[in-house]
Amino acid sequence: MTVREHLRESLRHLSGHLWVKPPTGPPPLEQIEALLPLLDAAVLLQPEAERVIRLCTGDGDLDTKQIAERGSAVRIGYWRLRRDLPALPGPAGLKDDIRRLLLYHEWYIHDAVAIACAPAQTLDLVAHRAHLAGGLGAPAEHLRQIRQDLLWEHAELSADGDDRPT
Question: Which domain holds residue 128?
Fold first, then answer.
């Protein structure tokens, strides 16, 4: 299910006759405003994550201490975002998609650093290293697309003024 579909489902749930009863959560605009800073931070970590992956998959002598330090900083960044996500309001399905993407980013960096810092480079590790050289790929683009869709929805809801039906 796309971000837009998650949000549309949430909007349908929060609109119309359901507003007669007190809503169970904040309105969609507030949900988007709560999720956007987390997504901004996740997207801002992506260039450093890609740099770490390039260091890990590069040829020649690797400075494993530098790789481990930079990789740990990026992994911890994604871990913190994933840790903070459940406390934020938003559609459960959308938050689950974001959580999975953050976990993917975290573990991709983990694998790249583990392979780069391995004491011996076996044929399997060399093959896996070559696979990792492609970078974060489609999941990174998916995370950026979720952020872009939320920005679009935020602009649309903000232009409408108050997003609660009367």
Answer: 3-16+27-159
Instruction: Note whether residue 150 is domain-resident.
Output: yes
Flag whether 164 is in a domain: no
> What is the rounded average pLDDT of the residues 32-51?
96
Yes or no: say if 73 and 136 are a contact pair by the CB < 8 Å rule.
no
pTM: 0.80
- Is 22 inside a domain boundary? no
Number of compact structural domains in the chain: 1
